[in-house]
């Protein structure tokens, strides 16, 4: 099935972006259909001058309600993994390739996550480009398949790419491209796996690669 056609977020992104301006502007975004069922748009948060950007998929149920990225269980696990890898959690900037929560159905009060479609990722790309322009990080860690495919294309596979620093792809031009990208799994995948200890250790090992590159 072909990806849905959306107008994209470009017309809502400020011409001279700042992180505060982006957080305000995203609330008016109607670049795809996700704004209809989400509580609010959720832009990235963290150190505005961070050398490292952590890039995930989309806000989850708790992030959608709070208006901040990575505040749920996956975010807490990510904080612990960063610290274990030698990276101060407060020193990074965290964001997602899609800024509105996509969900389908409920489990009690919790809305059930549904991965964004390719069309949603494409429509949201101007927001991520603006964030990268403002923060201008040295490196990016892409967490999970959705984030990896957003940056590297449809052929990206976490298992094939994780833990190896590569150059920022020319096919994804930004004003000041990061020097390198490291791929890893999304922390929510660690929470879902049966062998959580091994998955957590692998996540920390990947983050240590980024930590070494930042030294």
TrEMBL record:
This is Type-4 uracil-DNA glycosylase. Pfam families: UDG (PF03167). Signal peptide: none annotated. SUPFAM superfamilies: Uracil-DNA glycosylase-like (SSF52141). InterPro entries: UDG_Type-4/5 (IPR051536), Ura-DNA_glyco_family4 (IPR005273), Uracil-DNA_glycosylase-like (IPR005122), Uracil-DNA_glycosylase-like_sf (IPR036895). Belongs to the uracil-DNA glycosylase (UDG) superfamily. Type 4 (UDGa) family. Residues 43-208 form the Uracil-DNA glycosylase-like domain. Keywords: 4Fe-4S, DNA damage, DNA repair, Hydrolase, Iron, Iron-sulfur, Metal-binding. GO terms for biological process: DNA repair. GO terms for molecular function: 4 iron, 4 sulfur cluster binding; deaminated base DNA N-glycosylase activity; metal ion binding.
């Amino acid at each position: 099935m072909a990806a849905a056609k959306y107008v994209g977020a470009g017309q809502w992104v400020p011409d001279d972006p700042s992180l505060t301006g982006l957080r305000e502007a995203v609330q008016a975004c109607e670049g795809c259909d996700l704004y209809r069922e989400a509580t609010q748009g959720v832009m990235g948060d963290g150190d505005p001058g961070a050398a490292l950007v952590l890039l995930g998929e989309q806000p989850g149920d708790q992030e959608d309600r709070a208006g901040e990225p990575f505040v749920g269980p996956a975010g807490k696990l990510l904080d612990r993994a960063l610290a274990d890898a030698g990276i101060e959690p407060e020193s990074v900037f965290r964001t997602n390739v899609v800024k509105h929560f996509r969900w389908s159905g409920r489990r009690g009060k919790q809305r059930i996550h549904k991965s964004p479609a390719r069309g949603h990722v494409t429509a949201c790309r101007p927001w991520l480009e603006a964030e990268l322009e403002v923060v201008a990080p040295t490196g990016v860690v892409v967490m999970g398949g959705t984030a990896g495919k957003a940056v590297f294309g449809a052929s990206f596979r976490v298992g094939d790419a994780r833990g190896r620093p590569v150059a920022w792809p020319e096919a994804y031009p930004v004003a000041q491209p990061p020097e390198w990208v490291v791929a890893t799994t999304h922390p929510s995948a660690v929470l879902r796996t049966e062998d959580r200890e091994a998955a957590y250790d692998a996540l920390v090992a990947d983050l240590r690669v980024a930590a070494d590159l930042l030294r």
